[in-house]
Automatic annotation (TrEMBL):
SUPFAM superfamilies, per database record: FAD/NAD(P)-binding domain
InterPro entries named in the record: FAD/NAD-bd_sf (IPR036188)
Pfam families registered for this protein in UniProt: NAD_binding_8
PANTHER family for this protein: DEHYDROGENASE-RELATED, PHYTOENE DEHYDROGENASE
Record-given protein name: Phytoene dehydrogenase-like oxidoreductase
Residue ranges crossing the lipid bilayer per the database entry: none
Length: 477
């Protein structure tokens, strides 16, 4: 029987394991941490009864993918829940902007910028299923929908400042700036619009849902379905070399590229080793979990109903903060993402005390405490916030790497989203999952389509392995 070992139990490692096991491969998953899940862990980090997502909190690209359609995770308890407002952006003075599931409702609330918002996101939303079919795969392929992908690509290729110029009001520009900041790239750089266009469109097509009971529900569902197919998971096992994995026919590495290079060692072809060791990581994040009585008192009304709140002020302020971070300097007013998952999933709260998730963009490997900077930014748009905070849990960029070694220097998206790596990650190759060692594949978020709890990196890598097995005439069961 064909045997596979998967190193790492994040959503991509588990997705790869499940995809292989469903085809009759005998699969074992090895996880270094005491618990599975990677970026999809949920814990009581502040006060008893409050469920905090330790990293990945919102899942706009996980709802409708080839992997999600192939495997019914709802049978193992995965339930998606949506907030009323998908994301919002407060501004000084109590104003701001918000994105609803409907692009028309969002456009109507933007007033003078509504027509421009509809022109960008309305067209994309109605065609996003086809567009996503192409961008959830490696870029070097024959597109199934070339015209639609080309229009999406024309917008994605723009610097965020250039695309933001389509909107004339502070509200419209800020609303796009907040979602574009998810790329952790300077706004003047090429393709810095790509993540914002994808996530902004996904908010209208799929929403920004949360997993009921916390993101750990994703890992539990994956592990449950894997067990149905005979797969096994072992925790507390650190893999440092391929030699430790015995005679496995397939090895899937859900690790950062540098870790893959260390594990594969001298077996790697020199060109692949160079690519993996030169792989670039982006800025880090500094994360704070808050226990807050009665929630965050946002002045901007829609922000009180938003699952995600982008905190950073105007487009110009966010652009300046992101530029400073990339220069290795901590901005006085960093961009802060605030998660209010409990609005969609009240089971995470305990009475009137709710869990609030927040992180700031910081320079790579930043070790200093950014808690005060984060609280000042929230307090700026929600006066009285500090008075409601009952407890905190803090992780610096360096501590995030200790929590999950894939987050090198606190880089939670597992790789810089510069133009080259956004298109060709982790290296330029027709099959970016193969490492040039027979049967060994990289399946982490450093591979296409990148970060998120969608599992598509693992699914794509596993399908690559299955093609190779079949090409060799190897039976899977």
């Amino acid at each position: 029987m064909t045997k596979a070992v998967v190193v790492g139990s994040g959503p991509n490692g588990l997705a790869a394991a499940l995809t292989l096991a469903a085809e009759g491969v005998e699969v074992e998953v090895l996880e270094a941490a005491p618990t599975i899940g990677g970026g999809t862990r949920t814990s009581e980090l502040t006060l008893p009864g409050l469920l905090h997502d330790e990293c990945s909190g919102f899942h706009p690209l996980a709802v409708d993918t080839p992997f999600a359609r192939r495997f019914d995770l709802s049978r193992h308890g995965l339930r998606w829940r949506w907030p009323e407002v998908q994301y919002s952006h407060p501004l000084d003075g109590g104003g701001g902007a918000a994105a609803w599931r409907s692009p028309d409702a969002t456009a109507a609330a933007l007033g003078a910028d509504g027509r421009a918002w509809r022109q960008v996101f309305g067209w994309l939303t109605s065609r996003f299923d086809d567009i996503a079919e192409d961008f959830l795969r490696p870029m070097l392929h024959l597109p199934a929908h070339p015209v639609k992908l080309a229009r999406f690509g024309a917008l994605a290729a723009l610097p965020a400042t250039a695309l933001a110029s389509r909107w004339s009001t502070p509200q419209g520009r800020a609303l796009f700036a907040g979602v574009a900041a998810h790329a952790l790239r300077p706004f003047a750089s090429p393709m810095s619009s790509a993540i914002g266009v994808a996530l902004g469109t996904a908010a209208h097509r799929y929403g920004w849902p949360v997993a009921e009971g916390g993101s750990a529900a994703i890992a539990r569902a994956l592990a449950g379905l894997l067990a149905e197919h005979g797969g096994k998971v072992r925790t507390g096992i650190t893999v440092t070399s391929l030699d430790e994995l015995g005679s496995a026919d397939v090895v899937m590495l859900d690790v950062a590229p540098s870790a893959a290079a260390r594990i594969a060692g001298e077996r790697l072809p020199p060109r692949v080793r160079r690519a993996l060791t030169r792989y670039r990581h982006g800025p880090g994040v500094f994360k704070v979990e808050f226990a807050v009585r009665e929630g965050v008192p946002w002045q901007h009304e829609e922000s009180r109903h938003a699952g995600t709140v982008h905190v950073g002020g105007s487009l110009a302020e966010i652009a300046a903060a992101e530029r400073e971070v990339h220069r290795g300097r901590m901005p006085t007013r960093p961009f802060v993402l605030v998660g209010q998952q409990y609005l969609a999933d009240p089971s995470r709260a305990a009475g009137d005390v709710v869990p609030v998730y927040a992180y700031a963009h910081v320079p790579q490997g930043w070790a200093a405490d950014a808690t005060v900077a984060i609280e000042r930014q929230i307090e700026r748009f929600a006066p009285g916030f500090r008075d409601r905070v009952l407890a905190r849990h803090v992780r610096s960029a360096r501590q995030l790497q200790e929590y999950n070694p894939n987050y090198v220097g606190g880089d939670v998206v597992t790789g810089a989203n510069d133009a080259l790596q956004l298109v060709f990650r982790p290296r330029v190759a027709l099959d970016p999952y193969r490492l040039g060692v027979p049967g060994v594949y990289l399946c982490s978020a450093a591979t296409p389509p990148g970060a998120g709890a969608h599992g598509m990196c693992g699914y794509n890598a596993a399908r690559s392995a299955l093609r190779e097995l079949r090409g060799k005439g190897a039976g899977c069961s």
